[in-house]
């Protein structure tokens, strides 16, 4: 299994928002460093972002955010949804992290599939003098994974493959170490009537890079999607995360009762702060009608509940949707809300997973 050298210095909460990523900036992802990740297996597409972040956390890298193209914008998604093999852009907060991801993790195996990891802003190419187009092999179905094509081809030709990717449903590209090795593979394969086709021109290795999908990224607002709290904490402490561990929290009855206790405590604290600051509790709950749900989600997210984490990252209170400018009293209630949420997080920070 591929390994990445330990990070020095270790991560901290500061890494979540590097300079130029917050405030009135034109394109927040520009402050981060992306890589293209391909051939990533995920059985539930809705878990793709968290699974990608967990994979990199297991390697000691903080994958700050992940961009996945939508089915509306990407016809290839239909094939990916069938095979459960996806691609995406993964953004890191440090340039060295992106460089090391490409250097150490390209071709790493994840659940039996070799990953393709390339730069996210620089186009790389399958070179025509080293690459063949493999459309069909005996015993390998058309929709089979690239591993099936690669392993079969290596078995027949005995030549080592340096890269293999499917950039369209009908096309698998296989790159050898040099022109001579490619020609030897073609000659051997053709003797078995496999007829590998040389590509006439260089072909992109990445299906897309950042500049190709910048408009889609702007709409997705991926800078708001923070990694799971458990992953953050482990990375801050320099601990290794198990790549196969399902961090979805399944609460026991005892845990649920405990969580509700913390919610009640946080609401009590909110009333105390409101009284101290001469603010109206009823108005507070009108501005934040889902406060209790947010508080409960914080407790569950700390335990590793990915649905709770997703709710916290995507939830917008009604006033956030319909208003642009706040009057002073509204701003004071927003500060109160944020203080209560932070208080809740501090309360449950030491809760252990059951």
UniProtKB/TrEMBL annotation:
> Could you tell me the superkingdom of the organism this chain comes from?
Eukaryota
Entry's Gene Ontology molecular function annotations: nucleic acid binding
Concerning InterPro entries, the annotation shows: RBD_domain_sf
Q: What is this protein called?
A: Uncharacterized protein
- What species was this sequence derived from? Culex tarsalis (Encephalitis mosquito)
């Amino acid at each position: 299994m591929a390994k990445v050298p330990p990070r020095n210095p270790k991560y901290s909460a500061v890494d979540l928002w590097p300079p130029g990523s917050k405030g009135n900036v034109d394109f927040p992802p520009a402050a981060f460093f992306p890589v293209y990740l391909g051939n990533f297996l995920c059985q539930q597409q809705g878990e793709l972002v968290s699974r990608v972040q967990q994979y990199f956390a297991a390697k000691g890298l903080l994958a700050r955010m992940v961009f996945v193209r939508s089915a509306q914008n990407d016809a290839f998604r239909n094939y990916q949804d069938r095979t459960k093999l996806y691609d995406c852009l993964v953004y890191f907060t440090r340039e060295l992290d992106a460089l090391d991801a490409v250097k150490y993790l390209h071709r790493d195996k994840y659940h039996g599939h070799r990953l393709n990891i390339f730069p996210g802003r620089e186009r790389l190419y399958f070179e025509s003098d080293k690459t063949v187009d493999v459309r069909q092999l005996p015993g390998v179905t058309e929709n089979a994974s690239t591993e099936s094509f690669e392993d079969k081809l290596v078995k027949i030709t005995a030549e080592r493959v340096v890269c293999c990717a499917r950039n369209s449903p009908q096309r698998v590209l296989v790159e050898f170490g040099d022109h001579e090795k490619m020609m030897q593979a073609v000659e051997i394969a053709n003797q078995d009537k496999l007829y590998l086709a040389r590509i006439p021109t260089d072909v992109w290795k990445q299906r897309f890079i950042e500049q190709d999908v910048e408009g889609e990224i702007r709409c997705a607002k991926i800078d708001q999607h923070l990694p799971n709290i458990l992953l953050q904490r482990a990375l801050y402490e320099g601990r290794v995360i198990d790549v196969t561990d399902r961090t979805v929290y399944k609460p026991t009855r005892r845990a649920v009762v405990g969580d509700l206790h913390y919610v009640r405590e946080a609401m009590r604290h909110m009333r105390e702060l409101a009284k101290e600051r001469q603010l109206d509790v009823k108005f507070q709950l009108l501005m934040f009608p889902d406060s209790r749900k947010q508080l409960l989600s914080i407790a569950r997210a700390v335990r590793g509940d990915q649905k709770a984490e997703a709710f916290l990252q995507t939830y917008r209170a009604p006033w956030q949707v319909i208003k642009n400018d706040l009057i002073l009293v509204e701003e004071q209630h927003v500060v109160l809300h944020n203080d209560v949420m932070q208080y809740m997080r501090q309360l449950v920070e030491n809760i252990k997973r059951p």
